[in-house]
Amino acid sequence: MVNIEIDINPFEVLIAKKMIKEFDETKIFNKFVCKTNYIGLLGEIVFKRYLKEHNIEHEWIKFIKQNWNTPDFIIGGKTIDLKTTYSADMWVQQPKFDIYLYAQISKDDTLLTIKGWVTKSYLEEGIKSAKIRQVKRDSRVDYVIPTRQMLSLTWLSGVLSPTTL
Q1: Confidence of residue 66 (pLDDT cuts 50, 70, 90)
Q2: How far apart are CA 120 and CA 99, in angstroms?
Q3: What is the reported pLDDT for 100?
Q4: Which of 21-25, 55-59, 128-132 has the lowest mean pLDDT?
Q5: Is a pLDDT exceeding 80 seen at residue 26?
Q6: Distance CA 18, CA 125 (A)
Q7: Strand ranges for the chain from DSSP E
Q8: Fold classification of 4-160 (topology level)
Q9: CB-based contacts of 81: which residues, under 8 Å, 6+ apart?
Q10: Per-residue pLDDT averaged across 128-145, rounded?
């Protein structure tokens, strides 16, 4: 499978940590203490830079959103949720967006590797048929997709537009 590897600049880590700290201080509900909760934002910052460096037209919907119904990016008219983790699998909740793009960050926060993607319809079908693993924690349900079940990045360019990725 083809991967996209993007070096992470140390200042991007600092920016992500600072922004998350400020965001967490404004939260009044659903607080969850986690020392690595900045990596989702870090993934978005790094991917945004990658898109800009490669002249890929995009809209970045800033991390600090009013609700959970807003995608991270819009590229080629498609809504994209970037799922960034240290894990070897992508974790998704209820499918809402056209494309779910999986990125893994190295444990030392120096490399972002985009490894695969799935569509909303793929997730919906996998959930319906129970082919995608569910993890339940209290009232929360996550769906876990290993990279072997994802589509290759070489297919992604045709889905978004001929000039992207």
Answers
A1: low
A2: 6
A3: 96
A4: 21-25
A5: no
A6: 38
A7: 4-7, 59-60, 73-75, 78-85, 89-92, 99-105, 111-119, 133-137, 140-146
A8: Trna Endonuclease; Chain: A, domain 1 (3.40.1350)
A9: 71, 72, 92, 96, 97, 99, 100, 101
A10: 90
Measured distance between the N- and C-terminal CA atoms of the chain, rounded to whole angstroms: 15
Residue 28 identity (one-letter amino acid): I
CA distance 13 to 98: 28
Write the burial class of residue 103 (CB in 10 Å: 0-12 exposed, 13-18 middle, 19+ buried). buried
Give Cβ neighbours of residue 1 (< 8 Å, ≥ 6 apart): 115, 116, 147, 150, 152, 153
How many angstroms from the chain centroid is the CA of residue 39?
Answer: 10
For tokens 């998704």, the residue is: 92
Structure tokens at 23: 């965001």
Q: In what order do the strands lie in the sheet with 89-92?
A: 89-92, 140-146, 133-137
C-alpha span between 33 and 30 (Å, rounded):
10
What is residue 28's predicted lDDT score, i.e. its pLDDT? Answer: 55
Give the number of other CB atoms < 10 A from CB of residue 26: 7
Pairwise CA distance, residues 58 & 42, whole Å: 17
